[in-house]
Amino acid sequence: MEVLVAGCKKPLVSIIITTFNRRDFIIEAVESALDQTYSNIEIIIVDDGSTDATDELINKTYKNELRVSYYYKENGKRASAFNLGFEMSKGQFIAILDSDNRYKPERIEAGVTALMENPEFDISYGDIITINEAGKEIHRKNMRRYSGNISEQLVYDNCVSINTALIPRRCFEDLGLMDVSYKRSDDYELWLRFSTQYKFLYISQYLAEYRVMENQLSSNTLGRLDVNLRLIEDFRLKHGDRVGDDRFRQAFCRIHALKSIDYSKKRERMLAIKEFLKAFKNKPLERVTLKSLVFLLGFKK
């Protein structure tokens, strides 16, 4: 859908906010979406079975805001919530916002402008500012990000920040929505799949604020790494010709080394040794392999 705005066509952007028991933060998220320098937006909130009266808060706060729509569903994790939001959306472009995070005011405009000025690219994304639970800035450190055909870079690590990505609707229509079989790393699976046909454009600009909760500091690292390992193995089976074998070995090495480090920190020595040996088998001299050995030998805790 396109509408005429100030004498020029501006494509409609659908901002999909998925939430589960984030009543304390969701208003900040929605307000940051409403406060965009880009005017032609719709905001679709999908409540994934919250039990903290999120529905009452949203309906009361935004009952007269025509740009905001609210939908409630039974809990099924972010992927299923996003998929419902997509079905309810009308935008030519799709943006995603986790309900405990915030957009910077120029986030949507930067993405639309970048893609319009660089039509050879399909999906844009940028950097994040990390904030604490109170919303105060912690740091602006970002991992290295890439433009172009980035399957090889994505196999090693997920370098695309979901809260900064702007995705044309046609990408979902052509290659499908989020895979609900992944309870974690659903965005990682999406980027890997999209990287097989679409080119990514990195915008060197802070586009969103990513909130780190206290309980995230001790989150399930091993569970996430196990899911990522499965993702990369699946990607290798389906699209192994897109990435060199050496890069896959690097990726497998990294995951096993990180698992070894996590086990070492938990003093689960036998499991740490097992994962270290897997990392060593893939890439014995890789920096992360040597780092895991340092933890394993107890030189670092």
Could you explain the architecture of this structure?
With 301 residues, this protein is α/β, with parallel strands linked by helices. The protein has helices at residues 23-34, 54-61, 77-88, 107-117, 151-156, 169-175, 186-194, 221-239, 245-265, 269-282, 287-296, and strands at residues 2-5, 8-11, 13-19, 41-48, 68-73, 93-98, 102-103, 123-131, 137-139, 166-168, 200-211. The chain folds into two domains: 2-214, Spore Coat Polysaccharide Biosynthesis Protein SpsA, Chain A (Alpha-Beta Complex); 218-296, no CATH class. It has eleven helices and eleven strands. A hairpin with a 5-residue loop joins strand 8 (123-131) and strand 9. It is globular. The model is unreliable at 1-7 (pLDDT under 50).
In helices, the fraction of residues equals 40-55%
Poorly predicted runs: 1-7
Number of helices: 11
Average pLDDT figure? 94
CATH class of the largest domain: Alpha Beta
- Say how many strands there are: 11
Radius of gyration: 20 Å
Task: Return the domain count.
Answer: 2
The CATH homology group name of the largest domain:
Spore Coat Polysaccharide Biosynthesis Protein SpsA, Chain A
Query: Which fold name fills CATH's third level, the topology of the largest domain?
Result: Spore Coat Polysaccharide Biosynthesis Protein SpsA, Chain A
Based on helices, strands and strand pairing, what is the structural class? Answer: alpha/beta
Question: Any idea what the CATH architecture of the largest domain is?
Answer: Alpha-Beta Complex
The shape, in one word, is: globular
> Largest beta sheet, briefly?
5 strands, mixed
Q: Tell me the series of helices and strands, N- to C-terminal.
A: EEEHEHEHEEHEEHEHHEHHHH
What is the percentage of strand-forming residues? 15-25%
Largest sheet, order of strands side by side? 5-4-3-6-10
Distance between the termini: 54 Å
